Amino acid sequence: PVLVESLLVFTVVLLVHAVVWDRFSWCAVALAIQAFYVQFKWDRLLQLGGAVFQFRGAANSGLLPASMVIPLLGVVMKERCRAAGIVYFERFGIIVASTGMLLALFLSILAVGITKPVPTNTCILTGIAGSVIIYTMKHSLTVSEVIEVLEVLLIFVYLSMILLYLLPRCFTPGEALLVLGGVSFVLNQLIKRSLNVIEGRGDPIDFFLLVAVVGVVLLGLFFTVLFIFMDSGTWVSSMFFHMMTAVLGLGVIMPWLYRLIQRNPLFWLLQFLFQTQTRLYLLVYWTFLAASACGVVFYQNAKRSSESKKHQASTITRKYFHFIVVATYVPGLIYDRQLLYVAAVLCLALFIFLEYVRYFRIKPFGQTLRHLLSLFLDERDSGPLILTHIYLLLGMSLPVWLFPRPCAPKGTLPGAGALVPYSGVLAVGIGDTIASVCGSTMGEIKWPGTKKTFEGTMTAIFAQIIAVALILIFDSSVNLNSSYAWILVSVSLVSLLEAYTTQIDNLLLPLYLQIMLMA
């Protein structure tokens, strides 16, 4: 399975390289080759228990697929913005690609450094790949851009040391690279933009995303340190938790956001949400879907109480939430993507806050949340945190958040790029859901070395093709310009990756589909 997964990632890298064909795509190829070799060192460390931190079990390291996501995103973003003539975001794409390569290289060097005996051949490959990447950066980045890349690396190192120690068994090395690398980049961008505020420059919804992500992460770190010294399950601690959340929200996060958008954040948010009648209809519709999702949770828990204490939700039951999320995102993508962008940020902040309440057993809802959500646990929730629902939200939202709006003057990219915002809906909402449901109900032929079935993968590809046809019918902004073969190849590669990867597919698959569609 690891070899097939690696082959699929190499195929994506080579396809992007064939389209872009510049020094950064060559660096991506070099990075992929060395990550392939280092991945086996990480796998060996995990099997022998020699890794520095405790990582998630029942999965390989995932170093190769995770190492390529951020660099490839930067490469395709750079190419799209270069074609649109937007120099600022072309340079931003170069910074993203360079940062991703440096973070992946750091994780590879860490694995090589703690492997005993020292793997000579892997060291040589890592050295060659590192030399190629650093040489390219030297001749492509300005001094300020090099400093920015090194700042992200420094934040990533410290954030990894803190969070991987506090949250054992929550991530594989690859997932840690993706999640913590993304948070490090967001934190650095927020600091940079806060120090260089120019009135009227920048979209408020972008600042809203940056402040929300950094705010909830800092909130979690603060309470983790605090509850080392006091019991979090008492009423006194719970009152203190709610009070300090309000203080940090109103005293730190709101003023920070005010400095960035130059207006009252609460008034701006209310005005934004209720600006048009379409937005009001969407909010009412989303509220109904949220109530339906809560109804599924309560119904399944009532069913567990009446049947058996050991009752666990089936795969099909868990996929109900995927269908609800698809029903949530598709109208937003068709009618108002900016509203969907902001609503997804608010949902992410709420999900993470509720996970803090559950994890710290904050009264009055902490213990109730523990009981309700325990029904939907699977083998990937082996650590102290329950992250699968947050990964689902991230997988659906990241293509919307990462869509290069300034490089798409008409609100959409030409060709297959028009489907980029739909990457999460196609890969996770439809592809992964149909593969799981059909594979578990009628699948008989298993892919070698996995539990996934041939029937599930084929029906997933077919369902995504039908979904693309429906998007063409209902979304008039999508014009594929005869790029149907590329879309078919992209969907097929991502569906095969879903069958073979042991990483969090909700997070990985939409990003790879987005890379392919943007290329």
Automatic annotation (TrEMBL):
<feature type="transmembrane region" description="Helical">
    <location>
        <begin position="278"/>
        <end position="299"/>
    </location>
</feature>
<feature type="transmembrane region" description="Helical">
    <location>
        <begin position="207"/>
        <end position="228"/>
    </location>
</feature>
<feature type="transmembrane region" description="Helical">
    <location>
        <begin position="57"/>
        <end position="76"/>
    </location>
</feature>
<feature type="transmembrane region" description="Helical">
    <location>
        <begin position="454"/>
        <end position="474"/>
    </location>
</feature>
<feature type="transmembrane region" description="Helical">
    <location>
        <begin position="88"/>
        <end position="112"/>
    </location>
</feature>
<feature type="transmembrane region" description="Helical">
    <location>
        <begin position="7"/>
        <end position="37"/>
    </location>
</feature>
<dbReference type="GO" id="GO:0005789">
    <property type="term" value="C:endoplasmic reticulum membrane"/>
</dbReference>
<keyword id="KW-0472">Membrane</keyword>
<feature type="transmembrane region" description="Helical">
    <location>
        <begin position="341"/>
        <end position="361"/>
    </location>
</feature>
<comment type="similarity">
    <text>Belongs to the polyprenol kinase family.</text>
</comment>
<keyword id="KW-0418">Kinase</keyword>
<feature type="transmembrane region" description="Helical">
    <location>
        <begin position="118"/>
        <end position="137"/>
    </location>
</feature>
<keyword id="KW-0256">Endoplasmic reticulum</keyword>
<feature type="transmembrane region" description="Helical">
    <location>
        <begin position="240"/>
        <end position="258"/>
    </location>
</feature>
<feature type="transmembrane region" description="Helical">
    <location>
        <begin position="382"/>
        <end position="402"/>
    </location>
</feature>
<feature type="transmembrane region" description="Helical">
    <location>
        <begin position="486"/>
        <end position="513"/>
    </location>
</feature>
<protein>
    <recommendedName>
        <fullName>dolichol kinase</fullName>
        <ecNumber>2.7.1.108</ecNumber>
    </recommendedName>
</protein>
<dbReference type="GO" id="GO:0043048">
    <property type="term" value="P:dolichyl monophosphate biosynthetic process"/>
</dbReference>
<feature type="transmembrane region" description="Helical">
    <location>
        <begin position="422"/>
        <end position="442"/>
    </location>
</feature>
<feature type="transmembrane region" description="Helical">
    <location>
        <begin position="149"/>
        <end position="167"/>
    </location>
</feature>
<feature type="transmembrane region" description="Helical">
    <location>
        <begin position="320"/>
        <end position="335"/>
    </location>
</feature>
<dbReference type="InterPro" id="IPR032974">
    <property type="entry name" value="Polypren_kinase"/>
</dbReference>
<keyword id="KW-0808">Transferase</keyword>
<dbReference type="GO" id="GO:0004168">
    <property type="term" value="F:dolichol kinase activity"/>
</dbReference>
<keyword id="KW-1133">Transmembrane helix</keyword>
<keyword id="KW-0812">Transmembrane</keyword>
